[in-house]
Amino acid sequence: MAVTSFCQFRMRPVQRGIPARPRPVAVRKIEQVKENYIGQRLNLTPDESKAFWPLYRQYVEDQTAVRILKRQNNSNNSPNGTEQIDKDLQYETELLNIRKHYKDEFLKILPPEKVSQLYKSEREFNDEVLRQLSERSVRAGN
Length: 142
Known about the structure:
Distance between the termini: 40 Å
Structural class: mainly alpha
Number of helices: 5
Low-confidence stretches: 1-15
Mean pLDDT: 85
Radius of gyration: 17 Å
Largest sheet: none
Number of strands: 0
Helix content: over 70%
């Protein structure tokens, strides 16, 4: 299995064979709440904010493109289970490489403490969203 080079997953979703489509309103709302949460946690200066947000949005877009491919790979019943496993591992490697690349990019504009806080804030936000979804599911009797 050849590991995809960074330039291959830096391509926009439409270039990777994923049709570009607008995000649902609910997803855009969650993204906005997440950005507000992260912004508050990072306490960015105006200069940091100007450089950070376009880079962060590209980081999220790059991760999303790979996650879509990973989800598509895992949703199909591949006749060759080994191939499906290999692709899944390749996508995990791509996600890790994206994080490594953007860590370096974030460190060019933010101090290490804020980059660390960024990753913590993302985890906290995602954990809270999952907790709330779980609670809603329990309340709905699912």
